[in-house]
Design the sequence.
């Protein structure tokens, strides 16, 4: 296995020995970028940010492409968000947003049990708020969103029954929101996402008929949305993905 710190030091030595060699400096920027990515994966965010900053400074001096510079800036932003979310969690701030954001960070780091616990705490907070504000559609959307996160986390741990229950509850909420706002494309899109998630869990359980029913309803929703917004390339991609899911299930049945 390569040592990212060693790669950085070797690249740094080459750049120092050849200060006018743009290739050596570009290699150093790439090595720093790779080191930063690995540090993020390990949760060492301060070190990652320092490496990203140095990589960014070199890239700017070399007049790197805007795409390259933007990629580093975006990763720095992600690392700062992670750092902030973890700090909020450690400080014991129990707001639903901070709990959910901290859960997202732990999920990114592969700590699914901690992420799941935080998502559930966020749900408890959101449900309490919704009980006080039963007509608040935004809170209902947030509950559905966190239920999906719970479902995804459970599915990743192969806990399919729990995942299915969470996704189905999210679907019930999203159907109700879509019924209240029939012209809200976002509400219909959310409903389609839940149907797709349910179909995936059912497919994993080997329930081909139920999976196809969910996928087909998801496809119909997306086709209707695409017909109303023909220039939306994202919807066309979603339709293609759903059609591939349906074809896969049908092929396995034959």
Sequence:
């Amino acid at each position: 296995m390569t040592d990212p710190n060693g790669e950085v030091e070797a690249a740094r030595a080459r750049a120092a020995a050849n200060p006018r060699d743009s290739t050596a400096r570009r290699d150093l920027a790439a090595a720093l970028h790779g080191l930063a990515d690995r540090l993020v994966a390990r949760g060492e965010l301060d070190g990652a940010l320092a490496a990203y900053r140095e990589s960014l400074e070199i890239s700017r001096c070399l007049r790197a492409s805007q795409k390259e510079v933007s990629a580093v800036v975006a990763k720095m932003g992600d690392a700062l968000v992670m750092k902030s979310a973890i700090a909020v969690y450690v400080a014991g701030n129990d707001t639903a947003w901070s709990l959910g954001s901290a859960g997202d960070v732990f999920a990114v780091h592969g700590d699914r049990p901690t992420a799941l616990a935080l998502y559930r705490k966020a749900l408890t907070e959101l449900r309490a708020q919704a009980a006080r504000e039963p007509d608040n559609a935004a809170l209902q959307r947030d509950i559905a969103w966190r239920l999906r996160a719970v479902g995804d986390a459970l599915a990743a741990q192969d806990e399919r029954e729990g995942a299915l229950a969470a996704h189905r509850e999210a679907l019930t909420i999203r159907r109700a929101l879509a019924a209240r706002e029939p012209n809200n494309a976002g509400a219909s899109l959310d409903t389609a996402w839940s149907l797709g998630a349910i179909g995936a869990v059912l497919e994993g359980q080997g329930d081909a008929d139920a999976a196809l029913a969910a996928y087909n309803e998801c496809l119909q929703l997306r086709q209707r949305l695409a017909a109303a917004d023909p220039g939306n390339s994202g919807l066309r991609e979603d339709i293609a993905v759903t059609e591939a899911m349906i074809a896969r299930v049908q092929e396995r049945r034959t």
The two ends are 44 Å apart (CA to CA). The mean pLDDT is 87. DSSP finds eleven helices and no strands in the chain.
